[in-house]
Amino acid sequence: MSKTKWILLTVIGALVLGAVIGTVIYIRKTTVDIEITCDKEKIAVGTDETVTIRAVAKGRYDGREFELTPEIDNPLDTSKTGTYEITVKAKKYREEKTVTFAVNVVDEVPPVIELYTQPEYFTLPGRTYTEEGFSASDAYDGDITDRVVRDVSEDRIVYSVTDSSGNRTEAVREIIYSDPIAPEITVLGEQEITQERRYPYEDAGATAVDNYDGDITDRIVVSGSVDTTTIGDYVIEYSATDTFGNVGTANRIIHIIERSKPIGEEEEAKGKVIYLTFDDGPSGYTSKLLDVLDKYNVKATFFVCNNGLDWLIEEEYKRGHTVAVHGWTHDYKKLYSSVDGFYENFYKMQDRIYELTGERPTLLRFPGGSSNAVSRQYCKGIMTTLTKDVEEKGLHYFDWNVLAGDSEAQPISTEQVYKNVINGILYLKGKPAVVLQHDIKGFSVNAVEDIIKWGLENGYTFLPLDETSYGAHQRLNN
């Protein structure tokens, strides 16, 4: 082989070897490992949250890194729950890698239950709770109120609901058993009344209804009273308490005013008025008489004497009757021997009544009446003087025009007293009847209830006397 040929072969060999070596070196330098990663296996539904997928190629021999742009199939739909398979492909040089990731879009947020409440709502004890209302909503399912389950026990309700992803929520309502509402009281008739003095007051009453107990009218307690003898404003209060101690109240106001005209005037007399008057008491029979008068709400007039039963005089006044002067004594000689003697007797009794009642009476009845003749034995003309003089002093005397006949020494029957009074009233033919009885006579007191019954059944009104009443004055005999 020639030298030239050897040199040529050597050069060619070197070139070939260099090419081979260069190729080997290049291949080593460009050999990579591809890594593909996904940062989440689970993501919340309905959020803006995303998964991050990264592809990196690392030089196998020199450790260099190359950030790759992967190709991704089946992207996530975060608006719907489920398991999504994401296929990721990455390529570098001659290396290529495909990886599939499973990503779960999940709903882990429990639903919300809202319990509606009404202000001051309650359930009556022993009654069934009436639902105030509720709703349920879920971030993924929306309104799921129709899925709510109610578990009702005696004093609580447990509400539960489960969404489509199995998330469960509970809410508890405590049932409040109570009755804070007081009974409602209705005043019958007018709630405010204006009435002239001395006319009988009859209360129309009231009714009471409770939301738990129903009609409790029979539990009404009435307090307050009306003194028809005294001008003023009076309050009648009605109260009723239900089973739970709630108290309902209502009031009626009564204005007692002065009478516009005397009850004894003819046009008033057409109203058929009876004045029951009782002389010479009080006595052991007076208490029974007061109870009878109360039973029928009848007011009468008592011309009293000093009999030592002061508490009965107080009781007559407290119960709304007219307490008037008959005399400290019924001794005609002491009464009618002189004008001064009469007034001494009168004022002494008037003062005593004032001490007991706080009211100084101006009404009187002369013992024996203004027409008595017995006074002639002691002072001629004294009754003529006194009847005129008492009126000038602002006093008012009353006689009678119906006589019970109970003043005789020989007692008569209760039945006869009744007949005498009724016949006397009928004889007047509608004029005011001023009836004289004595509450120191038991047989006469026993007739009063039947007299009242007859009067009420026949349309009569019973009134106490006052300074404007019909005096039933008799003809003077001295």
Summarize the structure.
With 478 residues, this protein is α/β, with parallel strands linked by helices. 24% of the residues lie in helices and 31% in strands.
Task: Walk me through this protein's architecture.
- The chain is α/β, with parallel strands linked by helices.
- It has 4 domains: 30-106, Immunoglobulin-like (Sandwich); 112-174, Immunoglobulin-like (Sandwich), CATH 2.60.40; 184-257, Immunoglobulin-like (Sandwich), CATH 2.60.40; 266-462, Glycoside hydrolase/deacetylase (TIM Barrel), CATH 3.20.20.
- It is 24% helix and 31% strand.
- The chain has 10 helices and 28 strands.
- The strands form 8 sheets. Strands 21, 22, 23, 26, 27 and 28 form a 6-stranded parallel sheet that branches. A 4-stranded mixed sheet has the order 2-7-6-5, with no helix packed on it.
- The protein is rod-shaped.
What are the main properties of this structure?
single chain, about 475 residues, alpha/beta, Immunoglobulin-like, 4 domains, six-stranded parallel beta sheet, four-stranded mixed beta sheet, rod-shaped
Architecture blueprint of SSEs:
Layout: H1 3-29, E1 32-38, E2 42-44, E3 53-59, E4 65-68, E5 71-73, E6 82-92, E7 95-106, E8 112-115, E9 134-138, E10 142-143, E11 149-152, E12 156-162, E13 168-174, E14 184-187, E15 192-196, E16 206-210, E17 214-215, E18 221-223, E19 232-241, E20 247-257, H2 266-269, E21 273-279, H3 286-295, E22 301-305, H4 310-318, E23 322-327, H5 332-336, H6 339-357, E24 363-364, H7 382-392, E25 396-397, E26 402-403, H8 414-428, E27 433-438, H9 442-445, H10 448-457, E28 461-462
Parallel strand pairs: 2-7, 15-20, 21-22, 21-27, 21-28, 22-23, 24-25, 26-27
Antiparallel strand pairs: 1-3, 3-4, 5-6, 6-7, 8-9, 9-10, 11-12, 12-13, 14-16, 16-17, 18-19, 19-20
